[in-house]
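User: Sequence in, structure out. Go.
Assistant: Echoing your sequence, followed by the structure tokens.
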Amino acid sequence: MGVYQAARTKLLIDFDLVGLVELRDKTFSATNTTTVGVFLRKRQRKELREALTVVYTHFFKGKKNPAVLRALDALKEHSPDAQVSDGEVKAYFQENHITVSTIANMDLEPGSLPYSVALLMIFLLNRESNTVIAYSGEKKEQEDFLGYRFSSSRGREGIELLFENGVLKTALYDPRNPSNPEKVNAHIKMNFMGKKIPIPEVLKSRVRHMPTLQLVEVETFQLKNPSGFFESEHLLITSHSRFGDVIDQFQQKAYQLANLIAKNDVVAIDGLIYNKSEDEVPRKTKNRVLTASNLDLKTARLDMTPKLIHLREDFALPQAMKPRKGDIIISRASGSLKHLGKCVYVEEDVDAVVGGFLSVLRPKDQKLGKALFYRLLSAKFRQYIASLRDQNINNMSISDLGKFPLTLPADLNAFFKMISDREEQLRGVEKQMRELEGKEVFPV
């Protein structure tokens, strides 16, 4: 376990995660960095020892413990493919000579726990916990949330507090009434006390109560940013499919993209990395590189009209990076969240490779590939993409892509027939439009 994962393990076991407040780029004048304020309550050592004792008795006393069974059920519901290794758990206790009597005097260090023990402890301790998450919003939204802005006007440089009727205009707190439910601090304070108050309408776009475990990535114990659970008025989340999300008209079956990739049902290929100054040339060559500009957002098709990148003639292009018929090309990095995750379906083999900010998904089965493509166009996927937004450039790794809660039609044959019929109808309409555009309306 690396030092960062060990630190996250300690946070989730040693502390109750009471609140997370995400503050965006207008919070500090000298940096664009996103900041997350973390509100924690330290757990008593007794509570940790009791949880470890429960784990020990479940694995060594011949009687299944209900609390452990509930934690395992919660883990299965959270991440169906996540596993607690019985062997790893037992080895931890045996190799360290840990028994019920020794646990009573242990000074438990969560960061040193093996993964399976840490995972089980996290789900035991946090299964019934809730976290208040808050988000400052983006652009001008942040000023109303923070209660200030930074001015660069001559003679007025620095921080400028925002008042309304003599009262500081902020969603963070009310200096006259610390329990004001229209302020973020009141909800975090009540959560510290084990209580929950309704969120008023004025705060519903900024504050939520979340089950703590929904914020945890089980593979790394990373915490999801609060912004991923809120929609911004500056970010319209809609489907990229020209037919709307007809995929959701079918009964769904849960898939794990990471598993599809691991089993080679879908091959994931990252784009080409090259030396721009040494390999790129200002003239046309046979060595062409596709960029995100070639992925048409409106039609979800590959467009070779925008300028391609050309590499020197003796550069050896990896053949596997050339898109083939039935592939999906997806954008993994963009300064615009609108273009992050945009994808196209490849109709014919392409004599060019994908660039470094793109990836190819190559499904073995055509029907699976078509369903995957339309899921990646869907509003559900766009909502997931919104959770990946960052302060400067938005990125999505193949690992991030694998965490998307993927569902596809249970009957892939029926979906493939329906969508193929619709695509054929669309091609017919487009052909008629091209013919009409090519005719003279008023022949001379």
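User: And one key feature?
Assistant: The radius of gyration is 26 Å.
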